[in-house]
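Usage

Read records sequentially. Each one opens with the input sequence:
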Amino acid sequence: MTEITRAEVCAAACADAWRGAGEVLAHTAGVLPSIGARLARLTTSPDLVLTDGEAYFMSDPPPLGRTAADGGVVEGWVPYRRVFDIVASGRRQSMMGASQIDRYGNQNISLIGDWRRPTRQLIGVRGAPGNTANHRTDYWVARHTPKVFVEKVDVVCGVGNDRARGAKGLRFHDLGVVITNLAVLDYGDDGRLRVRSLHPGVTADEVHAGTGFELDATDAPETRLPDETELRLIREVVDPSGLRDREVSRGTGS
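and closes with the structure output:
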């Protein structure tokens, strides 16, 4: 078995976000979250529901980054309007990206700068408000930098813990973990981000330098390595073409 890469460590960490999730719809944005959901379905969460990212439930998903038109086995049709019913039911778990995220998990994917005259227009709020109001939401950040981990987001898309507490209509608000190319973060009792683990080879100083607010990683343990079964599934079944290495450089995890 060749040495374990940082991308494979991240893939296993993403899979852990769905560990024991049961029969819920996995919604993913990005290559590593998609690998993680598929890996979870093959290991710890066999009832996890996967789609082709468009209109079909898939018992066997298509090649990574493709749709049902390119392969896999269709299990059912899910028109767009039905997705909102699933979101509202809470039977869904998302792993989204974040262009900005603050210490309480407020997430921005809409724009950078003053919303009246933004310096950069991004993809809009998309489904982030509904996701964070209705079911568990995790985040994936491919580059852990101070531009992403900011003191204050320019626009709130996904609702953070500070805004959710005591807010009417947010009783199902549930932020899980934030997985980056450097570490796994979760939330303390005060709703603030904290470091759960550092990926192998990453130092606390690297995480500190990549975060625009106070985040102590001094005593954080090491993120677990994927076991041999998980490595085989990642390399031979889920991502044989190695798309994971395009999202996270081939630094080693062991």
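Summary fields computed downstream for this record:
- The chain is about 25% helix and 20% strand.
- The two ends are 12 Å apart (CA to CA).
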